[in-house]
Each structure stands twice: as structure tokens, then as C-alpha cells.
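Quick check before the chapter quiz. The format below is the same one you will see on the exam, so make sure you can read both the input and the output lines.
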Amino acid sequence: MTLHENEIPVDEAFVRSLLREQRPEWAGLPLAPAGAGTDNTMYRLGDDLVVRLPRTADGAPSLRKEQEWLPRLAPHLPCPVPEPVHAGAPTDAYPVPWSVHRWIDGEEPGPDTVRDWAAFGAGLAAVVRDLHRVDLMGATRADGLSWYRGGSLVPCDEWVGTSLDACRTLAGLDLDIDTLERLWLAALELPEPSGPHVWLHGDLRPANLLARDGAFHAVIDFGALSVGHPDAEHAPVWDLPPEARRAYWDTLSLDDLTWLRARAWAIAVGVAGIPYYWHTFPSFAAECRSRLRAILTDAATRRPDTSACRADAVDPFPGAVAAGDDRLTP
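Here is the expected output.
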């Protein structure tokens, strides 16, 4: 499945050729596709390893970040995270770094893999809390660890507006784009975040989380690792059922302005993802649409006063949305 114009094609034979060249002791192990995201393709290698290959040359910095920082962050986190065991060198045929990590058993969270969504939300919040408390170890946003989601909403307004307009052109989308735009514009009037910079995973959507035995288990894919303000870190909770969102909020004791800025980030990422992946990655576009529907449901059942700057106007859990409602329906 090709998602980007400048994508580097790979298949099992090609991956095995990389292994023969750089890690011949692994070249004869069983190899099978293990999923693909928007930035990387994965192949399970034997029972204990996974090969991770960026789709484009733009993915090289993300891989290097994981290789440098995951070994230093892992001891501070309360759950398994990827462990790099080989930093693959670029070749003439594949001019991008690649890596091999330890395999982590688990399944993507969903109605069939999670028993208690409140416990799942609390478990995710505990990881976020501990990650945000880890010392920066001298790292700053200037050290290749700057990403837009750790900064201000305001510089994103132009592309978010373009994405909202693009969503309006999609037949069958069935979203209240005008309300999403109103919520986005209101968030631009909020005070800027003023707390210290922290470590950010950057992309805690369900595809980057693992459940095991019905409970929260692990966080994977740290390619968006960055340093910045934490507001956008909380945005993916709109991909989870309301029980998980409430437990997440309660565990972290988030203030209302942080929650409103997080909601705006969720809108931004959702409206950008839908038109970009509408034809090439329908399940990802559906994930974005489900997130935006959850936001709209919350907004429609809030108290009438929706002034963005009044803390007493915020009711982040105004009603129940059935867990799993059309979450991956195209």
C-alpha cells in the first residue's frame, strides 16, 4: 500500500537482503509483514524481533531519535516500550536508516481486546505522567526534537483552514465541519501554554498502543518523540471511549484550558488526515472521522455557555457515547 509520492518500495525479499548484508545471523529467521503505519513498514523477524523501515527518506530523523533516546527513556516508564537492537545503515538500494527492535506482544486496543476502558485510560495516563516527568537530560526543541504538536496552535491555522475546506469537498464525509471550525477558532483565542517543556511521545493514537490480557500493556512507535508543551499529547484520547477519556482526565488532573487546547489539536490532526488519506488509507481516514464525531458529540451536549476562556463553561464528559460506536466504519 503506497501512501506517499516519494515512498521507497520494500517487500520481504528486499528486507531479507538487507539482513543478509548487515545482520547475516538473522537472515534465515522467519520473516512476515507485521503491519504498516503512515510513516513506517514493519516485518516481524523470528519470535523476538521486528524490522522497522521508514516509508520515505523523511522518516530518517524519527528513526535516529528512537535509537538515541528510547534506551534512555525506557527505565523511567511504567510499561514496555520498543528496544532498539540494531541500527540499520543506508544502502544504495535503500538510502535510509532502518532499525530492528525487540518484539512486544500485544494487540491494538479495541472492543475485543480491552475489558475495562476506564482502567485502560488510567494506564495510558500513568505512562504520559511519567514520561512528562522524565528529566530532559539536556535535550531541547532545538536538538532535532522540535515538532509542531509541542508548540502553539496559532501557526497551524493556515493549514487547518485549508484542511477544513478540503473536508467540505468530500462526498459522504457527513461531518459538521462548520462546528469543528468554530471550536478550532475559539481555541486560537485561548491563552498560550506557559508551563515547562517536557518529553512528548507525540502520537498516542490507538495504533501505537498495545493491550494484553484485556488491559493496557505497552506504547510503541516513538518516531514523533519531541520536546515541548504537553497539550497535543492528550489529543488522541478522543480516539478512545468516554470511560477512558474520563479516567485519563482524572488521573492527570488536567485543567480545562489544557483540555480545550488538546481538543483543538485533535481537530487539527483529524481534519488534516481525512483528505490526505481519503483514497489511499481509508481506515486511517475513518479513524480521524470517528475522532471528530466524538468531539462533535461532546460539544453538542455541553452546557449552553461554551466560552472558551471560562473554566466553569467546560464539561469534558457531558454524556455517554457507546464504546466502539462506528470507530472504524469507512
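If your answer matched, good. The beta strands are 31-36, 40-45, 49-54, 84-88, 98-102, 198-200, 209-212, 215-219, 226-228.
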